[in-house]
Structure formats: C-alpha cells, structure tokens
Amino acid sequence: xxxxxxxxxxxxxxxxxxxxxxxxxxxxxxxxxxxxxxxxxxxxxxxxxxxxxxxxxxxxxxxxxxxxxxxxxxxxxxxxxxxxxxxxxxxxxxxxxxxxxxxxxxxxxxxxxxxxxxxxxxxxxxxxxxxxxxxxxxxxxxxxxxxxxxxxxxxxxxxx
Length: 160
Hints:
This protein is an alpha+beta fold.
C-alpha cells in the first residue's frame, strides 16, 4: 500500500472514483451532475495544498488537503477523501486520513476541520472519531440523501 502525490497520469483512475462517489449522492455535497472538468478543477489542489492517491497496483483512493480558509483562518487545515467502491473496508480511507493528518502537522497547521461530514456516513464518522476528531455541531437536515431523505451535516475538528 502506498500513498503518493497525485500525478496527471493518475486522473484516468481518479475520475471514476470521484464520479462514483459524487453520483451516488450519499456522502459528498457535490452536484451529482458534476462534469469531469469541474471535478478535476475541484479535486486537484495547487501548492501549498496537496492531492494524493492510494496506489496498490492501481489507484484505490484519493485525498485532497489544504488550508481550510485563507487569511486569518489559514492556520487550520481541511481534507477530503474518496475511496473506490471495491476498496472500501480495507483501510484505504484510514491510511489517506492518517497521511493527511501527518502532512498538516508537518506543515505547521494548528488543527484539521471537516466542514460537511454527512451524519449518515457512519463509517467515515467512526473513522474520524477514532483518529481524534469530535463533532462540534450538526446542521440538521442539510444534506439530501437519496434514500434517507434529509440528514445532518457534521462539523468535525481535531486540534493538534
């Protein structure tokens, strides 16, 4: 298992992961009609941000990380993670999150904030809590889940 920096040649393997996650409308507040061009512009971070892939003979997951906000909020990081459907439950998300946390700490950030964790995404919430994040609050009924209706979006935070 290897996490490495995203390279342009990875996009043909990253795009199907993003497309699958976004079109399912279950875990990300992105428009399910997002085009490939919009996805690339949204997902690929420019330095000092970072985009990575989990490559184990093929891309099984991807992450993006950066400052959560510019200016006076730039000391707090944020990150997002997507795992290929067939690779879920195999530690890919955990490895991507641990790598993002290590990057943020090494870069001198004071913490990491997740702005919109879908409360029904129980595996992600459990993972983040296991790594030390806590739910600071939940915006009720802020996410339109395709089968559960409107569910909350958590704001989660880990101070370093």
